[in-house]
Amino acid sequence: xxxxxxxxxxxxxxxxxxxxxxxxxxxxxxxxxxxxxxxxxxxxxxxxxxxxxxxxxxxxxxxxxxxxxxxxxxxxxxxxxxxxxxxxxxxxxxxxxxxxxxxxxxxxxxxx
Length: 112
Hints:
It contains four helices and three strands. With 112 residues, it is α+β, with helices and mostly antiparallel strands. The chain has a single domain (14-108), classed as Arc Repressor Mutant, subunit A. The protein has a three-stranded antiparallel beta sheet with strand order 1-3-2. Helix 1 packs across helix 2 (29-39).
């Protein structure tokens, strides 16, 4: 049986996913995308354009720092890391999403 195509990331979740990926350590964009794909068993795919918009937005908010470095392929890459403010935001956002998910499941699991 063929596997369903990857799901689009719901608007508003990408920032959370990026912050969570960076909580594991400093990564470049491809590493963040791979981390999300692996953790979701391929169910979520993040497009490059959306990822880099999110990273710029998070950097602007002061939740992420970025520095240039050299990748495993010996190529110039921008590496992103979580700031103290970003860690605080991640905790708050995780709590909010857990509440949201519980509320949605209460609705969809309730017989009509």
